[in-house]
Amino acid sequence: MRKERVKQDLRVEIASCERALKVFGIEEVNRATGKFCPGKRIKGSVYSGEFGDRVFAVKKMSREIDISLEVNILMKINHFNVINLYGVCDDGQSLYLVSEYMEFGCLKDWLKRGRKGGEEEGGIGWEIRVQIGLDVANGLYYLHNFTKPAYVHQDIKTSNVLLNSDLRAKITNFSLARSAAAARDTNVTVHLVGTRGYMAPEYVETGEITPKIDVYAFGVVLLELITGKEAVLVARNEKGGLEEALTSYVDANMGETGVEMALPLFRLSLACLRRESETRPNMEEVVSSLVKILTDLRRLRSFGDDSSTDRSVIPLRRGSRNENDWSVETASW
User: Fold this and answer.
1) Which of 33, 139, 243, 269 has its CA 20 to 30 A from that of 50?
2) Marked catalytic residue, from 90, 135, 155, 251
């Protein structure tokens, strides 16, 4: 009876989406995906589909899963850094979400492939990585502050960040998202959901859900952008200092300047990963910091590839004695 009730609710939800979303027929979906042939498979249950002159991603979903909340959220969201849902399909046996196609796949796989995103030296590579981080931060800033109601994604991780052909990032998979207001009303969850390694301490210990759990998960994503490794929490080297601790963790693809460029990002990630949620920055502050880091990177690159350039004349922000200070205004290069 429960399964039948879920099916009925889904049909009602999809029907209510008809004005905002296209409802595809299964014949159209089968034709676009070659009846879900292996050659069209992107990953898991996601396939590419050619709908006329456009390519979309088609995700096949079990009817056991209630997707009504995710569809409802994506209907309301219109932001460059959040995946765009174009339509749905229900053939009576399975459900299908039709969304924009992201040519470079998920950030997790992109990091595994070790793409540098440009020139051999670290400058361009860092710009791409910081821009990806900024895209994710902008998406979360929008979810936390400009949607009605405000949402907590609750499952931010590199496999839920997709990259388009320009290596611009968009947040996907809203199956665990909840409104911030609803989360406050039901502060304790029956069981934990999410991904180990990305869960904030307060969520693991008490089930507390606030936007700060997304900030914590973003801190892990930022570390992965720096290191090129999966969900690695880099412990601070008390004896050798921050620079020495970073040397063995920064992605080797980033060249000799890797550690130097990583310092501001590393400080910001540590701030997002603070144990006490109230001491973490909010996403507006994270966005502001990443904008400043990206601006400095571009200014540094504008001095050219001349190795004789005296960096002491470049007006970068000079260092703080407090290595845990996340503010870019006091970041050390």
Assistant:
1) 139
2) 155
